[in-house]
Amino acid sequence: MNAVRLESLSTLNYRNLAPCTLRFGAGVTGVFGENGAGKTNLLEAAYLALTGQTDVTRLEQLVQSGEQEAYVRADLESGGSLSVQEVGLGRGRRQLKVDGVRVRAGDLPRGSAVWIRPEDSELVFGSPSVRRAYLDSLLSRLSARYGQQLTRYERTVSQRNAALRGGEEWAMSVWDDALVGLGGEIMKFRRRALTRLGELASESNAALGSRKALELTLLESTTPETYAADLAARRGEEVSRGSTVTGPHRDDLTLTLGGLSAGEYASRGEGRTVALALRRAELELLAERFGEQPVLLIDDFSAELDPGRRAFLLELAAGVPQAIVTGTERPPGAALHYRAQAGRFTPADAPASELDGLTALPLEVHI
Ligand SMILES: Nc1ncnc2c1ncn2[C@@H]1O[C@H](COP(=O)(O)OP(=O)(O)OP(=O)(O)O)[C@@H](O)[C@H]1O
């Protein structure tokens, strides 16, 4: 299978990172260093440059304190051709370019990276909104149309909420028609995608050594068939609350392990296994959809103390065409290692003569 390959990553004014260009080879690149060195920030920058996505809501958090703008750039190979993806960040602004031409976020390749993090346990133990965000982010990458319809749906919900709060009950039939159309499409797409996602996640969960079966189901707040009637039936409640109380924005992705809700009953370790299974399923689903293996980013493998899960993470990294693995200790099995120190990265094993040109390239911020 083809693979996306990150040739190099450049950053300027990105969080605590010193301006740099790091090159990556095929196979596993290990990045190690002490807490706070910038390892997570490097993966976050790589994910942003590869996908255009960040889950940070205030973009200025990504800009180095004291600076106004930041910039990340990925030189990558995808579908057999080379391209340059750039992301400029400022206060509340994000600008993307591919090969020098401005594009929208949805125009970047959608299956280019998967990021596994210690805080993925939140997928299991966090609120339904965390699981909805996981599902929506994955499905938006699988289908551009899903992403567009979701944006429209969310905008419609907030406009409808404003109309409810403003006492505009007379306008509800128009808002309801829009919601039922958009929401119905979202629900149907979620149902279809969940079948394959569920299969892949339960296979991964078993591969991780869990003896309890993992099942994914969608706890729907309504259905495409009954949405219009459900809205009508709950109109009084909506008017008194001033918000839309039914629809796919209220769905939950329920995870059951051995028949019990994982969020309520799983141990911390079992929960981490489930979260890892979800990420591996994401990796496989994107590869199936785009016929190309994403770059795998694994943050802090050393936070994973369980030997089985740690081995699984490292095997996963070794089994894909390209992975970047960070840790406070050296990730084993890496072809290349960078040492992270106070926002700087230096090849750990190269002789000094080979270090020339690897750091502090002159870059310009232009957003
Ligand atoms: N916008 C910013 N400007 C400057 N520094 C920042 C900014 N955002 C975060 N930092 C700093 O970056 C550092 C965190 O880096 P990061 O989370 O990448 O560390 P890490 O190497 O992954 O550490 P750990 O091993 O603890 O996970 C912190 O010291 C934080 O204060």
TrEMBL record:
It comes from the Bacteria. It is found in: Cytoplasm. Keywords: ATP-binding, Cytoplasm, DNA damage, DNA repair, DNA replication, DNA-binding, Nucleotide-binding, SOS response. The keyword DNA-binding applies. InterPro entries: DNA-binding_RecF, DNA-binding_RecF_CS, P-loop_NTPase, RecF/RecN/SMC_N, RecF_2. ATP binds at residues 33-40. The keyword Cell inner membrane does not apply. SUPFAM superfamilies: P-loop containing nucleoside triphosphate hydrolases. Residues 6-316 form the RecF/RecN/SMC N-terminal domain. CDD domains: ABC_RecF. Belongs to the RecF family. The RecF protein is involved in DNA metabolism; it is required for DNA replication and normal SOS inducibility. RecF binds preferentially to single-stranded, linear DNA. It also seems to bind ATP. This is DNA replication and repair protein RecF.
